């Protein structure tokens, strides 16, 4: 008898908690009707088509919650630092590059409350304490099909092999170091990415330098696209979005997907925002299926919802990175290593960029 | 009588000027106050903060300066920054001097056209102009297509220092031409005729009469162009390669991507002091010829 009462009580308790959980557990893409009426959120990103697409993806959230959404940018971590230092944070949700939320977690960015964000549909290994991905893209090896007719390069190893594959190279020199590219250079130099050390960075840098003085470090995405469309470099490490646009514009280049470098933008909430709950609600809406489909359709970046099926044209679809076959070929950099050695690695990278 | 009248008028105006000068001395401060205030708030204060940060972040001390001078790449780039700026100044001078001279010699209509040619590029954003240079200079670009069509071998222009100097010189040319023109238009061209009538060859008349009189414009233009060139960022980033990176790019790296404001500040302070030192060295140069010129 006693046990029966206990069982019933336990069952009852279980039911209550499940119900409570079900009620408070967030669902990606959803927000309660009118829940943010009278509130204002400022969303910050990199501008252009990308930010327009993000705002379009958030339209449903804005309409339903009643929030006033302001758009600002472009994202500059230094501006955010100034806001956090002065205690006057006006940016509520910030889209950043892949490293900042790791490097400045708990300093500039809040640890996210994952009871308020439904992360169940986000691809594995992309969530950090301070961020969820904003979208995915890749750095892919694009080669000139007219130059390498019968013997095309197949991987980064070929990219770094100047003897077997003569020709000029272009790499991403637009900002922070590309950890994935340095790791590929290290592998091409015969090193190992297991238990990487700072000395390994030097080894990789030597390999990068061995590409020769004519190597181009492009500064902007538009710059890389221009290189492809004018045929300036024979092999170009390109962002998938720019590679796609170049191909659409008639560039005679084709991707070699082996070990394409997985890159993402991050959604973050700065320290000291006035309404963290509202900021979390925005992120939860942003990672929803239909929001991600809108984002992919308008920007051609890869959605970060596993089931998102955006309607896009053939070329765009060819450069989406979330198909099973491409996910298999993708290469994830060792974020932990690069974050731990962020300063020294950047110093070496910047020296390379400055011709030393 | 007539002379007296003129005299008295002169005295009156002299007294008025004197009064004005006296009044000016008292009120001058208020006339310059708005500009001064703007300078203090928008230049002095930030500069002070940057300097302070270069000593205080992450701790108090000389660490950021020790780092700057202990890192070879910084010194290479600093040296390169001054070298590129010097080249740009030289190119602007060579291109701007005859242009400014022609502006003083032609009729008013033609002068208007020439001034417009100088000013119109001013109204186009630097980024757009730089991207136009990319299209002109690249390996498959306009210039190399012409060279190839003529049957010569193409020249490497983009991502070289030559490319950077060309692009920067074009952007900065107005800053050379305008000061040159403003000085040259005050030079009495009859002085040249006088020199010729006294037997000087055209070259000698130019070298001994015109050139010394135009030197203030040369120095003003050269200093403006040189200083502006030191801080250039977009043009070297887009037209140059790693071997033409200038200091502003390294500062940008420290400030924007590494959030190392102490180091960024130290780099800025070093650039500023180096510029002051160079200008101080050039100052006597700019005064002397002018003095001898007027004495003659």
From TrEMBL, chain A:
The record's subcellular locations are:
Periplasm
Q: Which SUPFAM superfamilies match?
A: Periplasmic binding protein-like II
Give the UniProt keywords, A-Z.
Periplasm, Signal, Transport
Q: Where is the signal peptide?
A: 1-22
Family, similarity comment = Belongs to the bacterial solute-binding protein 1 family.
Instruction: Specify the protein name.
Output: ABC transporter
> What does the organism's lineage look like at the top?
Bacteria, Pseudomonadati, Pseudomonadota, Alphaproteobacteria, Hyphomicrobiales
From TrEMBL, chain B:
Q: Which family does it belong to?
A: Belongs to the binding-protein-dependent transport system permease family. CysTW subfamily.
Membrane topology, as annotated? Multi-pass membrane protein
InterPro entries, alphabetized:
MetI-like, MetI-like_sf
Q: Which residues form the ABC transmembrane type-1 domain?
A: 78-282
Q: What is this protein called?
A: ABC transporter permease
Membrane-spanning parts: 28-52, 82-100, 112-136, 164-184, 205-234, 266-286
Q: Which SUPFAM superfamilies match?
A: MetI-like
UniProt keywords (A-Z) are: Cell membrane, Membrane, Transmembrane, Transmembrane helix, Transport
Q: Which organism is it from?
A: Mesorhizobium escarrei
Q: Where in the cell is it found?
A: Cell membrane
Q: What is its main location?
A: membrane
